[in-house]
What does this fold into?
Amino acid sequence: MTAYRYDYDVITQWIEPGEKVLDLGCGDGELLRHLMEVRQVQGYGVENDPDKLLGSVRNGVNVIQMDLEKGLVGLEDGFFDHVIMSLSLQAMHNTQGILREMLRVGREAVVSFPNFGYWRHRQSILNGRMPVSESLPHQWFNTPNVRFFTIADFDALCEINGIAVRERLAFDEGKLVLEEPNFLASVAVYRLGLER
Amino acid sequence: MIAPQSVGVVTPQRAEFTTPLALRGGGTLDSYHLIYETYGTLNAERSNAVLVCHALSGSHHVAGTYADAPHNVGWWDNLVGPGKPLDTRKFFVIGVNNLGGCYGSSGPNQINPATGKLWGADFPFVTVEDWVESQAHLADQLGIRRFAAVVGGSLGGMQAMSWALQYPERVGHVAVIAAAPKLTAQNIAFNEVARQAILTDPEFHGGHYYEHGVVPARGLKLARMVGHITYLSDDSMAEKFGRSLRHGRNTYSYDVEFEIESYLRYQGDKFAGYFDANTYLLTTKALDYFDPAFEYGGNLPAALARASADFLVVSFTTDWRFSPERSREIVYALLHNKRNVSYAEIDCPAGHDSFLLDETRYHKLLSAWFDRIEV
It folds into this structure.
């Protein structure tokens, strides 16, 4: 489950020691646990799945049960240094709403997602089957993903929503991709802010 | 892992206090006593004590049974014991009957040392803060400088929260379950209906009914009936009783027809048979008064700035008396202060009473949280 989460390393590099961090869809709190240990962050996870929430409590991570589809109501503007959403954006209906909320409560947002435009995924479609890969491990009939988008799609979305892409790193199953990321990368990690 | 067990037969104990206790409401108790029970063993470092605070009708009898009353099982027995979420192999657990209670601690049905007669209505008003202070004095007597945790549901959750504010250095962890930072107008309204039922009972006698050899049982019964409705959810009542008729048809009378009527009357009568009306009045007032943000102009985050404990806040989806929204207010206020806090909203159909049940997810969560506490 966690083998492909090399986005954690990138995210960790973007977090300064002692920051206030919110991790949306924190699962069993693995990333926050890591950030608490190596960055001494004051971290909070958000999770709506009772079993995952239990995992976070077992890991000694602060976790707040909340339905992200309803936004981050109750959290204060600009309270967090970074609001993270690791490989969960594609599983949300309210894509624009949550991005807006992340940049409301956080100074910066960190978002990672599987790139549906990855060449292997394109190849799979050309062969007539929905892609199943390391970054898209589910079958079409049991996937939690509800939004299917590419790096290029996400760039365009940021553009029309006034979201500044401050940094973007793309990976092909763990290896950094510098050229043609929309074709060659399976996962992208973004550092986002609001355009001034 | 072991199979959950009972703590077995327990014996209540009595602690005497001779240093006067100044109460928030202006009164003073020159001396008082508290009845309490303990489960498990206090370790050499005295670092494994957990205080369990009771709600409106609870008592010091949290877990186990009595030798002379084997069926009198503690009110939170499913939580406390070897192999249970609050595991007595690790923790030393304390239950205490609050001041003004009717289970043996100083209260309306106890002797007023100054007069040699029962206190009755003369027992002073007590608040959540007063209870916490008296509990701290009990901790002093037991040699407990700092609680590993203070835990409570409903009104007990308010005491747990108040512990974190009144004695931040004396409590490491706080679990606030099915509680609220203060009651809403609707919530106070239910309490007021209950109080009026008691106060207008002809046998109340201004609270000195003991001297007349009677109890305001009708008022107390009505109070409990109203309360009970608010502790259940619409769904749980529908599922349990629906519109079931005792005689299978309408009988056009005011005797019991619908099963829900039978249930409420039974619960009301039972309660009126053992609970004290003056304690009910005092305790509902303590609920109404609780509002730690009041002296901060209603600013709860400012009020909770004093807290340093790690919090667990739990609510139940069908609890409309202490709704999840109210618990979230506590969570956000703690978050504002960068305190460690986790929050779970348990999907349970049983309404406010859910906090007393051993619902699987709920108890797993409590187990996980207590397991993390280092003693």
